[in-house]
Structures
1.
Amino acid sequence: MTEPLLDITALTRTFGGGQRWFGVDKPGVRAVQQVDLQVMRGETLGIVGESGCGKSTLARMLVGLDRPTDGQILYGGEDLQTMVKRDRHALSRRIQYVFQDPLSSLNPRMRIRDILAAPLRHLRGLTGQAMETRLAELMDVVNLRPEFISRYPHEFSGGQAQRIGIARALAAEPEVLVLDEPVSALDVSVQAQVLQLLKRLKAEFDLTYLFISHDLSVVETISDRIAVMYFGRIIEQAPTYTLFQTPAHHYTRLLIASAPVPGGPPIIAESGDAELPDPLAPPPGCAFAPRCPRASEVCRRQLPPLESLPRQPAAEAPDTHRVACLFPARGPLTRAPQPSTPNEIS
Ligand SMILES: Nc1ncnc2c1ncn2[C@@H]1O[C@H](COP(=O)(O)OP(=O)(O)OP(=O)(O)O)[C@@H](O)[C@H]1O
């Protein structure tokens, strides 16, 4: 088996907590809990889940913008926190972050030339003609006209601004792009263009993508494998085709049944109890149990580990289908033409 480029073990991030309130420990928000994940070189791993499930917190830790409370991220076998401390620029040359909101992620007072020149200068040491050549290449590679380089961000549409954000990330010549909801702020037709561009760039520059979105249909379009997050944990992961054909977690089945239309509405789970558990007081068992049509008493008490499905022969392979459910569903799911009701979950 080839070594993973990113190897994430028991990654946990808790916000706040630690202090004592009236003699008792103040609880923290458990944004990411015990996440194990491997990202293989050259793949696109999609991470999907509804708002607040911890996707951005996970993404920020992967690019060194946030520190784990516990657990480890190995990048090419090296501890990412050690890399951050030793040389943040070295890490930035390898992993880049693409933000959700393209316009607000670009400095409104800087021309595009300066926005792109900053990483070329600081991360690649370019000046003079080499800088000019690279600036022109970057504009070309994301299909922006050369004269746009003198404009300010507010002079661009959302799709154009996101292409600038992608060009800025590519300026560092990274191996990995962590794309945090990169098309969520865009119209559906523009989303398709940006997704096409990302696919082309990945092939052209041999990139590895971590693609984060709440929109299952977008993640399906671009990912080789998908990890589904719920309440800070990975609850299922599988190759894209397998996940859509035979989703095993009842939450994943609900997501797929509720989001049948590519580019359709965002994922809104529609089971009886639509509330996520209180992040300050997570339940001892499966966090989805209160919403799950198949939950039994044991699910509310016992936390299900993320385990390979028995039918997988090579349990340790990265493309193994894994699920965190004591009573996983079996068999294919028929995708409904309309958003589902709880009764349609099989
Ligand atoms: N800096 C912070 N301080 C306190 N709590 C935080 C902080 N950042 C995130 N959280 C909490 O951690 C949990 C996960 O947030 P996160 O932004 O990672 O989720 P998400 O899946 O990316 O959601 P969204 O798509 O809405 O951004 C939420 O309960 C959130 O309120």
2.
Amino acid sequence: MAAMERPFVEIDGVSMRYGGTEGTLALKDASLNVGRGEFVAVVGPSGCGKSTLMRLVTGLWPCSAGSVIVAGREVDKPLSMAGMAFQNPTLLPWRTILDNVMLPLEVVEPHRRQLRAQRAMYEDKARKLLAMVGLAGFEKKFAYELSGGMQQRASLCRALIHDPQLLMLDEPFGALDIFTREDLWEQLQQVCVTLKPTVILVTHDLKEAVFLADRVLVMSSRPGRILAERRVPFPRPRRLEDTYTPEFQALVHELRDHISAARKGEEIPDAA
Ligand SMILES: Nc1ncnc2c1ncn2[C@@H]1O[C@H](COP(=O)(O)OP(=O)(O)OP(=O)(O)O)[C@@H](O)[C@H]1O
């Protein structure tokens, strides 16, 4: 039998308290693993610690207890290998869209070293990513000239430009209308099928979680920990029409029941 591959992200017994011993306990004894190339969605009640979990995995905050290991290494500083996109696209207003997308290349090695000599190659790559999300022709525009959805697509390209092995998405489509959001789900799915990064997506949208993820993890109310997980059995590529099937809707409802129970501090016994 082939040896089991070590998970790409290993979170073991992590606790996190903001603001000293009397501060807010955001996470308590949270554990989860994510396989290399796996797409995991994290859902849960508001304020349960989802964004905190993202900050720990990317090394933006240290954990108070437990360990976070990514690609076999303990995370003890910000992870440059991760690509990140958040609810707010945070594009720099004085840079063109192309230059915004290329920003991580100025920071992350080995790209930083190679950028000057290979600028044309990197620009070509940025253009291809922009084209993949429907932004061909907008390279020289500034953020204020783009709609919110277009800015969000550009921020997704910026998260992907340095071929991140790990993609961390914290409600990246939360501020968008449903049509733009669904459009971006399909584009993100396409990007993931092509580039195969390991992805952790935080979302409040259960349909989004089931459409995109290989596995959905449900967190408890604060202090957060993983209460339940569901593997999403639907084959890829998934189509928006699939979201109307009884199987898809049943899974969304099951996750909703878990979150309702979590909000009341209850736990649904695992049927599996
Ligand atoms: N910088 C901070 N300082 C102090 N407390 C914080 C800080 N960031 C988050 N918290 C607290 O930690 C808890 C978890 O916050 P977090 O943002 O991780 O939750 P979340 O699940 O992402 O929330 P939401 O779903 O509403 O976005 C909350 O009670 C929040 O008030």
3.
Amino acid sequence: MTPHNHAKAGDYAEAVLLPGDPLRAKWIAETFLDDAKLVNSVRNCLGYTGTYKGKPVSVQATGMGQPSLAIYVHELINVYGLKTLIRVGTCGGLNAKVKVRDLILAQGASTDSSIVRERFGAYNFAPIADFGLLRAAADKAEARGTRYHAGNMVSSDIFYHANGIEGYGSLPAHGVLGVEMEAAVLYTLAARFGVKALAICTMTDCLVTKEEIDAEQRQSSLTDMVTLALEVAIEA
Ligand SMILES: O=P(O)(O)O[C@H]1O[C@H](CO)[C@@H](O)[C@H]1O
Ligand SMILES: O=c1cc[nH]c(=O)[nH]1
């Protein structure tokens, strides 16, 4: 047990899906998992373990932003022994070729955050996805006919930039596809502790075209993302 998690040893499966939103964790557990049991509810940051296609898998909410995710992920790895961590998030679009509802597989995650910089001195560490998880997700998305893009994401500490897309500077011109708030530290912690991580995000609002997803589309798009993540998780 930790200050943020009252699950007991063995309550989590080795593979976990990580949404930011606790209600998304509940929805995933109730919609996709069999025999899902609540294993954590400290601060209402809900965590569940059940099975998918007969294989054990967990889902744990991480809250919003890198400091919040870092706490849950640090503990999931170091206290509970998890080995495969797949973020299932939403993101904004920074490139018009990414359409709302498309998935972004974050091959890498740039960041403005000191949480990634703190140990690297003069170096700019490049947080990257586990290649096996990334390849499996891309192969499965293709086989399922799910629209996806693999590339660079930015994990920003700032949701409300004063100047909209201008706030992301030259990142869009360097091929960065989308913006969310957690992947970079997830990848950094996975590298530090020798486990596998991938962030998959559904693009819900495009900062270039101003297009946004509506409520009905959101549900079906998140279904594509969660199904893909579960298929990858049970084979990891
Ligand atoms: O939908 P989630 O997983 O929370 O992800 C995105 O949504 C939140 C901001 O609205 C941030 O956490 C961002 O990363
Ligand atoms: O972090 C996020 C998530 C969704 N949309 C954004 O613009 N930013």
